[in-house]
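Quick note —
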Amino acid sequence: MKEVFPMADVVNLWDKPRSENLYMIVGWRQWADGGSISSGLPQYLVQQSNARKIGELRGDGFYLFQIPGTHDLVRPVVKFQDGFPKSLESKRNFFYYTGDEQLGVVIFLGDEPHMDVERYVGGILDAAEKLGVKRIITLGGVYGELPYDKERSIGGIYSLRHMKDEMEKYAVNLSDYHGGASIGSYLCRRGGDRGMEVVGFYAFVPTYDLSSFTQRSSSIRIENDFTAWLGVMRRVNHMFKTRFSLVDLEAKDKQLMQAISDKVDELEDGDPQVGIRDYMNRLSDAFSETTFDPLGDVWEEELRRLFDGGGSSAESDEE
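Predicted structure written out below.
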């Protein structure tokens, strides 16, 4: 029988990891989910790391069953077989854990609430406090007209003012956004109200409306932007000192670039007079690429250690 740790009225935790350094990655099936960065990437990390489920945030009171004037926009999906309700797809909000005694990561993946966001966000923050999480990273994605063959621009937000100098090291564009709040933005603010460290990474994902170019295909949209996933995870690994393997994502990144290039060539060959390839080249030439290079920091720290401390690594260890 699973042990349940007393929590807020919406949270059940049946396992409490004992990692000395514990962090959290949070994503949702949500509005700001361009390139599936907020939903697909956390699920990918759960699968790749064999993370185990350690708790849930119950859906009590957070989701609408119907909206007048619509048919099934928000209704859960039921599947019948010979009159029997074989399955019912309800909203899911689970906590997972991967790590060891020294370093661990809690991964939360949920469905953005329709209402009572204060209690919903409060439940996530309560769980983080109960588990002893040192910092939370939220994930999001936004579509835009950007070159597909460049590193993705990453936007950044943070919950406490003293974190600004550190954030500037991660090659992110610190947000000046003013408008409707995403669930990640909401959690960032409420985390700051509690004195908790919360970081938000938002990647900008390419999408193209080609209706003015050709009638054969009206748009190109990247559903799973592995290039953006890779850029985000390089920053996550560096910030948390985690070792999530990026080999598979690097391969998926190359495959994605080739697939888009092939699609553009196909459209160009079908309608060479409209200049789709020239359009893509103009986007690429006008784009200012920002590269995150954590190895540069590693080499700089190592050189400083050698020149300031003197001697070899073995000598330093002996001291």
